[in-house]
Design goal:
There is one protein chain. The chain is an alpha/beta fold and 442 residues long. The chain folds into 3 domains: 217 residues, Sandwich (Immunoglobulin-like); 34 residues, no CATH class; 150 residues, 3-Layer(aba) Sandwich (Rossmann fold). The protein has 12 helices and 18 strands. Strands 10, 13, 14, 15, 16, 17 and 18 form a 7-stranded mixed β-sheet that branches. Helix 8 links the parallel strand 13 and strand 14. Helix 2 packs antiparallel against helix 3 and helix 8 packs antiparallel against helix 9.
Length: 442
């Protein structure tokens, strides 16, 4: 049988929606006047207190006038949002919304609210996750769980936004409103619309105009500073095709010398200036170049939510730290199948790897498939970095399979609180509650 909390759960979305709308429609001055109206109404029940009764009637008339006036003073405006390409979870930023005056009068005292898509939690998520600091709430709040619901809804929505004032807008002009924003999680944030608030002549209430304005923002994982003392092992390895595989066009093997033409040499290798001087074909001779190629292996197999998020943040921190490395970096992860995203000369940029980390989810794929992928690529690797969460036998076998092929490894493990498990000495242990400090001390 469903508990009272489970029965009430579907109504909480409607309650938060109604509360949000009510807050938007009243100014501080209007809420004060409404409170005074209620007090005068209660005192005015005794008609012998004629002053309270008359004041109540006056205040009601003012409130009715302010509401009705909003129907006749609608501004004619349009909007355009200017989002950055990326934001980072937990880091405040600003973006702008341009408000265009399409009407026949100067618009003053407008306010703008941007509307991300509200994503309420489902019951499974509500039961699985706990609000930070929930243990400090009273027993009734913990049992009911409404505060946890509100926190999860904000987290799923993904961003906290502030209301912004709009400067006066001249006829056929426009003005920019600066929106303060704080991303609450990594991933995609979906914007649905923008709401323009316009005040009544007395400044007691706001009318609302909602304008469709769909857009998507990519929020990258939070990143930590990595100790400068941390060095990655592994030398240069031969890559099939030489550096030709690292450039998007042309031939870029390392030039060695000139030699006489032989049957079968490609025409594009002929050195025409030397051929003209020697009056016979001369070709350029190249050799394949050796260079560093690191692999970063992400553990996105099932684990607790808190540890998984820190695994992603550590991975993003390592990628950023190695962004200017002279070589290639392979990001290895599991979706429905093993995948590799390569960044470096002629390949994707590190930002595209960070985008993949922004949207990665936990996978129920086979670690055995992952092991086969790494075994096939071991001959290309100069070194391999593993970022793991909850260690088990399968994960340890994955590490051993790479080390058995002579690939130098660096292993980072995000450990749970009060972890008593014994790890090999060469593992870098990162307590989930203090990952940033641990990375800085490596």
């Amino acid at each position: 049988m469903a508990t009272l909390r489970e029965r009430a759960f579907p109504t909480w979305t409607r309650l938060t929606t109604l509360s949000r709308r009510a807050t938007r429609r009243n100014s501080d001055r209007g809420r004060l006047l409404q409170t005074g109206t209620v007090i005068c109404g209660a005192l005015g029940l005794d008609t012998d207190l004629s002053f309270a009764y008359q004041l109540f009637a006056l205040l009601v008339c003012i409130l009715i006038y302010s509401r009705l006036s909003l129907k006749f003073l609608l501004p004619e405006v349009s909007v355009r949002r200017h989002l950055p390409r990326y934001a980072t979870a937990g880091e405040d930023f600003e973006y702008y919304i341009s408000v265009f005056n399409d009407g026949e009068r100067v618009e003053r005292d407008l306010r703008v609210i941007d509307n991300p898509k509200i994503v309420p939690p489902d019951l499974a998520q509500f039961q699985r996750m706990r609000e930070p600091g929930e243990e400090t709430r009273n027993a009734y709040d913990r049992w009911l769980g409404f505060h946890r619901f509100v926190w999860l809804q904000k987290l799923n929505t993904g961003i906290a936004l502030k209301t912004a004032g709009v400067p006066d807008i001249d006829l056929k002009g426009h003005a920019d409103a600066a929106i303060g924003a704080t991303p609450l999680r990594r991933g995609l944030v979906y914007f649905e619309s923008t709401t323009i608030l316009h005040p009544d002549p007395l400044g007691l209430n706001f009318g609302t105009i909602e304008l469709d304005n769909s857009e998507t923002l990519t929020v990258l994982p939070k990143r930590y500073a990595v100790s400068r003392r941390l060095e990655f092992q592994g030398g240069r390895h031969f890559q099939p095709g030489g550096v030709n595989s690292t450039w998007s066009i042309g031939e870029s093997d390392e030039f060695v010398s000139l030699r006489d033409y032989r049957d079968g040499d490609p025409i594009r290798k002929i050195h025409w200036a030397s051929s003209a001087r020697r009056e016979k074909p001369v070709v350029k001779e190249f050799q394949d170049e050796f260079f560093v190629r690191q692999a970063l292996v992400i553990d996105n197999f099932p684990q607790t939510d808190a540890i998984f998020e820190e695994v992603i943040s550590v991975s993003a921190s390592l990628l950023t730290n190695m962004e200017n490395m002279d070589g290639l970096m392979d990001l290895c992860l599991m979706t429905s199948r093993p995948e590799v995203i390569t960044a470096g000369r002629g390949y994707a940029q590190t930002s595209q790897q960070l985008e993949a980390l922004a949207t990665i989810e936990q996978s129920n794929g086979s670690i055995r498939e992952f092991e086969e992928l790494l075994s096939e690529r071991a001959r290309l690797m100069s070194g391999c970095l593993f970022v793991f969460g909850e260690m088990d036998g399968d994960r340890e076998l994955l590490i051993q399979s790479v080390e058995a092929r002579g690939v130098p490894t660096a292993i980072f493990v995000v450990t749970p609180e009060n972890d008593t498990k014994t790890y090999p000495q060469h593992y870098h242990l990162l307590p989930v509650s203090d990952v940033e400090a641990a990375l800085g001390k490596l």
